[in-house]
Amino acid sequence: MSEIQIFGMSPLKGEISIQGSKNAVLPMMAAALLHRGTTVLMNVPDIRDVACMTDILEHLGCRCRRQGDCMAIDARQIEQTAIPDCFVCAMRSSIIVLGALLGRMGEGGGCYPGGCLIGARPIDLHLKVFRELGAQIEEKDGHLRVRRGAGGIRGAEICLSYPSVGATEQAILASVLAEEVTVVHGAAKEPEIESLCDFLNNMGAVICGMGTEHLMIQGVRRLHDSSFRVDGDRIVAGTYGAAAAAAGGDVLLKGVKPSDLREPLRILGRMGARIQPEEKEGRIRISMDGVPGAVHICTGPYPQFPTDLQSPFMAALACGQGTSRVEEQVFEARFAAARALRAFGARISIREREAVVEGTRPLMGAQVMAPDLRGGAALAVAGLAAEGETRIGNCRHIERGYEDICRDLSALGARIRWVKEDGT
Ligand code: UD1
User: Fold this and answer.
1) Pocket test for ligand 1, best of 22, 121, 127 (most atoms within 8 A of CB)
2) Which residue among 19, 93, 276, 333 is buried most deeply as judged by most CB within 10 Å?
3) Contacts of 351 (CB under 8 A, 6+ apart)
């Protein structure tokens, strides 16, 4: 398996286009199951999670054709209603396929997604959504089966006690083809939810309230063929923003909406970066002289600071100056990257949900393993700001969400490359 090799301490300079959003495209691919026809997605990122979702759709009977960044999903014939265990284990978010299967086929099944490195990640809210829509749930030997009740999937009023992204998506997918109206109170407001609703409305669904915590889904009988362009990935853009803050330089990130990144950009500004958002052009210029200053970050549901950028930003703060505080309020155990950053000489202490980061300069290159997707990207950020050589192993985690982190960062002038097992 390949490793990433980085020689740090060179500032980033240049411009790149940001890939399509992972967290937007995955539920859209699941939603394609709802339509007995063809759905075309554009700007689909070439990442492992998309490959996994493609495998799931094909297993269920869809025909997926990919050409460049375009993907056509033909869901005329669905033959299966169970997601094989291996896919749920490889990608937890595959559980949202259940909502789409329930909507289209009246039933769906899969194994119970276990806990993972970033916390227990229960699915109680997903199950609540199914129950309130009148579905029956069977749980046996770690497997789940949801089936529509005798009255079909009925519209319902669902109150989420926490604005879970996945549970909100599940409610949308399960109710688009339901009878009557479904209202979700306490819905997540992430831009990816808004994109999913725009995508579904473009297919003939009737959803309103996007961007608010109250979504209303008027059930429709059928959807129609459509094509839709996936937005740029705000988390990938934010990662490269953190890299520019850590290594210094001047970068232009194209194909991403600055307004989706308001809080991370505000934090980057407080760290000392100059931010020029160009909303109409869909791009952001970030320049940084000097070293990152100390800040207080607290993650939370959108529009608060995204938990997915917590570790890349922590890496930038670790090579800054002063004492920063990073509070993780979304996932209870998301500090695996902090422990790996210590190998670079970072001084980070963790108490429950809070990390205290004492800026240290320079960090020293290290040999580390990516602990998870965003944690792996954080180690690359640290490597760019560290003296000497860094090697990152276990990169399959990074490939789940970044098309090619070495391609992107070397286009910005970083000395970073893939090293194959044979050393080439
Ligand atoms: C999605 C994103 C992930 C991001 C997260 C938070 C995708 C594929 N993944 O994950 O990158 O980090 O949103 O922005 O879009 N919870 C419960 N019960 C549930 C569901 C969630 O207690 O039934 C809790 C979780 O344990 C967590 C919090 O709610 O503490 C947020 O989870 P959620 O918003 O559901 O995240 P995901 O949809 O899994």
Assistant:
1) 121
2) 19
3) none
